[in-house]
Amino acid sequence: MVIYVTNRKLCRDDFLDRIDSLAKKKPHAIMLREKDLEPVEYESLAGKVKEICEKNGVRLIVNGCMVAASKLGIPCIHLSMADLRLHAAGLACFKSVGASVHTASEAREAQDLGASYLIAGHIFPTDCKKGVPPRGLSFLEEVCGSVTVPVFAIGGITKDRMEAVMGTGAKGICLMSEAMTCRNIP
Question: Is the pLDDT of residue 185 over 80?
Answer without folding.
Answer: no
